[in-house]
Structures are given as structure tokens and as C-alpha cells.
């Protein structure tokens, strides 16, 4: 008589009882990491675009009419808020 041994079909995914993850778990984790990387790269491009387009403008808060004065002393002498300060012979400069 001829004996035939029948072996069970091997599973397509090797499952080891000591391993806590499968191929599907690895694919999900890789997809999440890739999505986060794409979002971060997109935010980087948006920030770079914003920084390049909006370089900003420097605004000063000087009084109106002082741009035509020949010096800072003359501009301050004509300021109505500083008229009652006192003697014009003593000059103080704050830097």
C-alpha cells in the first residue's frame, strides 16, 4: 500500500504567536506616518509662501509735520504738548 501524506496549506501571512503585529498593522502605521509627513511638508510650504509674500513694512509713529523740520530740536519746539516743558537752553536727548 502507498501512503500519502497530506500537508495543510500554509497561511499566506506568517503568524508567530510571539509577534503582536501583522502586515495590516504595519500598513496602517505607515499610512498614518506618511499622512503626517505630507501635512507637515504642506504646512512648511504654506509658511514659506507667507513669509516670502508678506515681508512687512516698517511703520513709524512720528508726529505729522515733523518730517519737514530741519532738526529734531525744531520739530520738538513746535510740538504743542511740549511747549510748557520749560527752558529751551537745556537740551536733553534720550537714546
Q: Note the gap between the termini.
A: 111 Å
In total, the number of strands is 0
- Percent strand equals under 5%
Low-confidence stretches: none
The succession of helices and strands, N to C, reads HH
Radius of gyration based on Cα positions: 39 Å
Mean pLDDT over the residues: 76
Helices, by number, come to 2
Oligomerization status of the protein chains: single chain
Q: Report helical residue fraction.
A: 25-40%
Largest sheet: none
Secondary structure class reads mainly alpha
Name the descriptors.
about 100 residues; mainly alpha; about 40% helix; about 0% strand; rod-shaped
3D structure, described in words:
The longest helix has 31 residues, at 23-53. The mean pLDDT is 76. Helix content is 39%, strand content 0%. It has 95 residues and is mainly α.
Brief synopsis:
It is built from two helices and no strands. By secondary structure, it is an all-alpha fold.
